């Protein structure tokens, strides 16, 4: 079975800047709307099936939550659904917004 990998914010930055990875944000809608990684897609139970069906499984996938804990379970599940390169963002959005505020946006 494919396993997810941990990814630091520092290592994730070039992948996100160059749009080399899909970013899935598993936080609640209000938190996502208030601020998220530039280009991130919200992901929850209501759109999970659609996300799995419509996302390129060969492109790296970075899963982000609040602090990097719950994203690990989501990353493992997505790896089991056929995504080839799945990463859990260490420190989550809370660390990301401090270290890379220039790559944050709100909806």
Automatic annotation (TrEMBL):
<dbReference type="InterPro" id="IPR050229">
    <property type="entry name" value="GlpE_sulfurtransferase"/>
</dbReference>
<dbReference type="InterPro" id="IPR036873">
    <property type="entry name" value="Rhodanese-like_dom_sf"/>
</dbReference>
<comment type="function">
    <text>Transferase that catalyzes the transfer of sulfur from thiosulfate to thiophilic acceptors such as cyanide or dithiols. May function in a CysM-independent thiosulfate assimilation pathway by catalyzing the conversion of thiosulfate to sulfite, which can then be used for L-cysteine biosynthesis.</text>
</comment>
<dbReference type="InterPro" id="IPR023695">
    <property type="entry name" value="Thiosulf_sulfurTrfase"/>
</dbReference>
<dbReference type="InterPro" id="IPR001763">
    <property type="entry name" value="Rhodanese-like_dom"/>
</dbReference>
<feature type="active site" description="Cysteine persulfide intermediate">
    <location>
        <position position="65"/>
    </location>
</feature>
<keyword id="KW-0963">Cytoplasm</keyword>
<dbReference type="GO" id="GO:0004792">
    <property type="term" value="F:thiosulfate-cyanide sulfurtransferase activity"/>
</dbReference>
<dbReference type="GO" id="GO:0005737">
    <property type="term" value="C:cytoplasm"/>
</dbReference>
<protein>
    <recommendedName>
        <fullName>Thiosulfate sulfurtransferase GlpE</fullName>
        <ecNumber>2.8.1.1</ecNumber>
    </recommendedName>
</protein>
<feature type="domain" description="Rhodanese">
    <location>
        <begin position="17"/>
        <end position="105"/>
    </location>
</feature>
<dbReference type="GO" id="GO:0103041">
    <property type="term" value="F:thiosulfate-thioredoxin sulfurtransferase activity"/>
</dbReference>
<dbReference type="Pfam" id="PF00581">
    <property type="entry name" value="Rhodanese"/>
</dbReference>
<comment type="similarity">
    <text>Belongs to the GlpE family.</text>
</comment>
<keyword id="KW-0808">Transferase</keyword>
């Amino acid at each position: 079975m494919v396993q997810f990998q941990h990814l630091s914010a520092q290592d994730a930055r070039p992948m996100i800047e160059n749009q080399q990875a899909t970013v899935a944000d598993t936080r609640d809608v209000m938190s996502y709307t208030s601020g998220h990684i530039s280009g991130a897609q919200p992901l929850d139970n209501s759109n999970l099936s659609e996300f799995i069906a419509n996302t390129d499984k060969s492109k790296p996938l970075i899963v982000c939550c609040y602090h990097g804990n719950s994203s690990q379970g989501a990353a493992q599940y997505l790896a089991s659904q056929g995504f080839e390169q799945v990463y859990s963002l260490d420190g989550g959005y809370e660390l990301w917004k401090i270290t890379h505020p220039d790559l944050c946006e709100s909806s």
